[in-house]
Amino acid sequence: MPATRTALRAGLATAAALPLLVLAACSYGSDKDKTDSAQKAGVAADAKKLSADSVKIGYFPNLTHATALIGVQEGLFQKELGGTEVKTSTFNAGPSEIEALNAGAIDIGWIGPSPSINGYTKSKGQSLRIIGGSASGGVKLVVNPDKITSLDDVKGHKIATPQLGNTQDVAFLNWIAEKGWKVDAQSGKGDVSVVRTDNKITPDAYKSGSIDGAWVPEPTASKLVSQGAKVLLDEADLWADKEFVITNIIVSQKFLKAHPDVVEAVLRGSVKTNDWIKADPDRAKASANAALKALSGKALPANVLDPAWKSIKTTDDPLAATLGIEADHAVKAGLLKKPDLDGIYDLAPLNKVLKGLGRPAVADAGFGVK
């Protein structure tokens, strides 16, 4: 069911570069400053460096980026990198992270599939590669149960998505089309009113009654539920095996070529972080929440954190087969011209890490480097 699989659209139509958000400063001070900085980052003074002094990692302060949150928080990336220091930057939007990657402000990033596609196609295949998976799931349609009691009731109501052309926006537009309803993708007007609303604002919009529901990622969905909304549909139920990419790992092609050992170390750290998460989910959940508190100043309450965490699955597999389907949905919605995705994946470093751990290789669904 083509329409039963959606998710890769984080920022497709909003390709215009947004301003960079929170970029970690790069210090060029004295040797003592560098030593102090490295020790604060958990780098042993005598630790052996890889081919780069540091690696700049970007991600979102979001539960769907749990691998990055926890890997940094627990020092699991730093352990694999030895004397090569981890420097971090956080972002609130995919386009700004792509801009940072293109500018060399970050080397490796955790990001949604749509900005990955958009960044790759806009650069004519020169800017980035997807080198691994990170998360699947964590997207829901939640509604006001006083106004909407069934999927058919969605017609005629106001439903929020995070951003024009983003991953959830395209998923919702595709679902609407499969229902046989008509909506103008750009304006959001039609049989359903698609109201593009920043996730930070969506709970207040719901509380005020200006929207009747939302197709959103976690933890926004669970925040709405805590306000009385009801989960009407979990997007995972629309996909084969209930899996679709929501977060993957990208790298600058320039950095990949210059520092393959560093890229491999970060991927090894990612795989071991996912193992750490699976071995003790409750401890991992607490670690992710602690990281969110450190970044945003506020931890998630249990009635939001627990259901949100449960619906997100960490994965090393980038679920590449879902990428093409998601791109097709964006094309079908009129938000993207048919993209050439050949070469968007380079999974050789990840498969080398997996082989070293005695695990099977993951596939690129025909979109890998030749």
Would you identify the regions where 5 or more consecutive residues have pLDDT less than 50?
Answer: 1-40
Order of helices and strands: HEHHEHEHEEEHEHEHEEHHHHEHH
Radius of gyration: 20 Å
Specify the structural class.
alpha/beta
Average per-residue pLDDT, rounded, comes to: 88
Number of helices: 14
Which percent range describes the beta-strand content?
Answer: 15-25%
What is the percent of helical residues?
25-40%
Q: What is the end-to-end distance?
A: 29 Å
Principal-axes geometry comes out as: globular
- Biggest sheet overview: 6 strands, mixed
Biggest sheet, strands in spatial order? Answer: 2-1-3-10-4-11
Oligomeric state of shown chains: single chain
Number of strands: 11
Characterization of the model:
The structure is a single chain. The chain is an alpha/beta fold and 370 residues long. Helix content is 39%, strand content 16%. The chain has 14 helices and 11 strands. The strands form 2 sheets. It has a 6-stranded mixed β-sheet with strand order 2-1-3-10-4-11, with helices on both faces. Helix 6 (167-178) links the parallel strand 6 (158-161) and strand 7. Helix 4 (94-103) crosses helix 5 (113-122) and helix 6 (167-178) crosses helix 13. It starts with 30 loop residues before the first helix and ends in a 14-residue tail after the last helix. Residues 1-40 have low confidence and may be disordered.
